[in-house]
Amino acid sequence: MATKSGGRFTGQLGFVLAAAGSAVGLGNIWRFPYLAAKDGGGLFLVIYLFLLVTFGFTMLAAELSIGRKTRQSPVKAYAIVRPGWGFLGVLTFLVPAIIMTYYSVIGGWILKYITVYLSGAGQAAADSKFFGAFITADSAPLIFNLIFLGLTALIVYKGVEKGIEKSSVFIMPVLLLVVVGISLFSLTLSHTDAGGVTRTGLQGLKVYLIPNLQGLTFSSFLQILLDAMMQLFFSMSIAMGIMITYGSYVRGQVNMNHSIAQIGLFDTGVSVLAGLMIIPAIFVYAGMEGMASGPGLMFVSLPKVFNAMGSIGVFIGLIFFLMAAFAALTSCVSVLETLTATCMEILGSSRKKTTLILTALYAVASTVICMGYNRFYVELPLPNGSKAQLLDLMDYISTGVLMPLVALLSAVLIGWLVKPRWVIEEMERNGERFGQKKIFAFMIRYLCPPIMVVLFVKATGLL
């Protein structure tokens, strides 16, 4: 049965690299390191890895199985799994629809930094005011956003095999090599500050890997758990409909058990290595104070680190932001592909026409988000007590509210209504052995729902 989006992955390698490309993105390169730095280094790492091999594996298996078994996009897939549950497909569709409004904006920021380092002006990027001046400018962020959106649209326009699979097979191995290279380089760094204190990359490695339990309370532990789970959602493309869409492109003979393990290994490896290449470098040149820079770690703190490296810093900075651009592009492609596949299925339109229409709509939407830092600047109070600009608001709604809700309802649907056997049968297609089926059944029924309830309540400020 062919997918209505009109394409299939040619085999297991193409599928794994495309799915890993969706999973490996800004969540790995940007979000994971700053959360690890904020949440006690090794403590965050341990919690994240535990959630990955339990919850992440469970939800990834469920979503890919739903996609391959129904051969439909998320909106229609859930209605096939269980009549009357089409609303869950609509909720799932809203997640990438909202994320797409701002993902290309951040991608545009990365492109700007690439041009800065290409021109040899890395010292300018090290100025603390550089990033703020750029995102509040009238035209520059809009132009870079549209360029990044255009690159994303071009890949989706070309289709599954010629666009998504072909680009992923090239980008992902290059990305992995760059991440490994910079990670090893970070461990060799050493710097003596004005006070005569020498810090090394290996000392930064200890900060990253050894759990910091100082001042840990139940509330702070719950926040770290929430951060790790939100990171897992964002990083693994869970509860976005993306893996259901990609699953619908997977051929029947592909071994799903092996594929899921490979996707998880690739995604986690890049996340851990991203922390390894960023946190030791930040520690060496900025100490523990630099570790507390939060979301600004990538765009404010790292350029200062590259500048402190001297002449080689310009080259390292360029390579880093090129790598970040590759990661952002593969993820943004997966988001737009999910939206495109769903709209093609519902409207019966062609891929090219659908891609062009969606690109035009998101050119307008992302422009509004860009202007949220200047002409449309607002500070909106969120239920969790924080304040948000337009981009922060979109991120909060998609990752903080909708993703936990979608994951909760999906776990209830698979675990209690259609029963875990529905997924297990798909995982054991062609006589494959699903060795983790007992763990899967236990997780999807008894652990995933209560965890999602707690995280949803915490994220919405009710706890």
UniProtKB/TrEMBL annotation:
Localization per record: Membrane
One of the record's GO cellular component terms: membrane
Upper taxonomic lineage: Bacteria, Pseudomonadati, Thermodesulfobacteriota, Desulfobulbia, Desulfobulbales
UniProt keyword Cell cycle present: no
Record's keyword terms, sorted: Membrane, Transmembrane, Transmembrane helix, Transport
Record protein name field: Sodium-dependent transporter
Cited InterPro entries: Na/ntran_symport, SNS_sf, YocR/YhdH-like
Main location per the UniProt record: membrane
Keyword Membrane: yes
Pfam family, one: SNF
Source organism superkingdom: Bacteria
Membrane-spanning ranges: 41-64, 85-110, 130-157, 169-189, 228-249, 270-288, 308-336, 356-376, 396-418, 439-457
Annotated membrane topology: Multi-pass membrane protein
Organism: Desulfobulbus oralis
